[in-house]
Write a structure and sequence with these properties.
Layout: E1 7-8, E2 15-20, H1 23-31, E3 38-44, E4 50-56, E5 71-74, E6 80-82, E7 92-95, E8 113-120, E9 127-132, E10 146-160, H2 165-179, H3 203-215, H4 223-236, H5 242-249, H6 253-263, E11 264-266, E12 276-278
Parallel strand pairs: 1-10, 2-10, 3-6
Antiparallel strand pairs: 3-4, 4-8, 5-7, 8-10, 9-10, 11-12
Helix pairs in contact: 4-6, 5-6
Length: 286
């Protein structure tokens, strides 16, 4: 028993054209999706050969300043087939951001007329597969949508730009721009004076050793004396870390911890996690 397919094949026999569009045209047309961006003309020449061409109507505003937002014309619906050549007159303009490839063109250098070549696809079998995620809403990035075959590619077409001097100049600039490396090395003219070199003794260590020599050798307090000093510290603050008390009193940490176990309570939970406080019976001393 064959499994049921999850792909909608209703339009599998629908004939489609696979059209290759120049990058600068696709950039403009994408910004004007649903608008009229040009016309498609088809006729037969004197020898009975079918000729085709595409007239681009989406042009950047010619009189704009380069520093102002760039604009593109939008004046109707989709690419349509007609026998007349339409000119981009009386058009409206909307601001768009020009892509890197389109930015290499000036406003008056975008070609209008393009050759349209068509050939049959006989050596390949190609279909257009569409994935619809409109019903998934917030889960569209986690789940796959409904798959449907839009049709079969019967012909391969290509919009060929005119080989004018302006177009060839743009292509040269585009190739040079793409060849530029993203990162480059810079030679420093001035010598770097500050160099971090490893040292055997850091400055902080030297100062600490000098202070230790000037203060003399510390001695270990008696237990009762240390307990009284800890009480004085807790008169200033209710909570202390053991290492802070040991540093403040200049006594061994283990010795301070031994006294704290007798007179203090260790907090193992926030908000004073890891800190000591006096037992309730000793808090009356301050």
């Amino acid at each position: 028993m064959s499994k049921r397919s999850n792909v909608d094949t209703t339009d599998a026999n629908k004939g489609l054209w696979l059209v290759k569009v120049p990058r600068y045209l696709s950039d403009i047309w994408k910004k004007n999706q649903g608008q009229k961006v040009g016309t498609f003309d088809a006729w037969e020449d004197g020898n009975g050969v079918r000729q085709c061409r595409v007239m681009n109507l989406a042009q950047f505003k010619r009189e704009m300043d380069e520093e102002k937002p760039e604009t593109v014309s939008v004046n109707a619906m989709n690419l349509i087939q007609t026998q007349e050549v339409l000119k981009p007159t009386d058009v409206q303009y909307i601001p768009i951001n020009r892509s890197k490839s389109t930015r290499l063109f000036n406003a008056d250098e975008i070609p209008v007329e393009h050759k349209f070549s068509i050939r049959k696809i006989t050596d390949q079998t190609m279909f257009v597969l569409n994935e619809d995620k409109s019903h998934l809403e917030e889960n569209k990035n986690l789940m796959s949508g409904k798959l449907a075959i839009q049709g079969r590619c019967l012909s391969r077409a290509e919009i060929v730009p005119p080989e004018t001097a302006k177009y060839m100049k743009m292509k040269i600039a585009q190739i040079r721009s793409s060849a530029n490396p993203m990162r480059s090395s810079i030679k420093l003219d001035s010598h770097i004076l500050k160099v971090a070199r490893p040292v055997a003794r850091q400055q902080e260590q030297i100062l600490r050793e000098k202070a230790k020599k000037s203060q003399g050798k510390t001695y270990r307090m008696e237990k009762d004396e240390l307990q009284n000093e800890i009480f004085k510290c807790f008169e200033q603050h209710q909570y202390f870390y053991q290492k802070d008390l040991a540093k403040k009193l200049d006594q061994p940490g283990n010795f301070v911890g031994e006294v704290l176990n007798e007179i203090g309570i260790f907090n193992s939970q926030p908000p004073h996690k890891g800190m000591w406080e006096l037992k309730p019976e000793y808090r009356s001393n301050y």
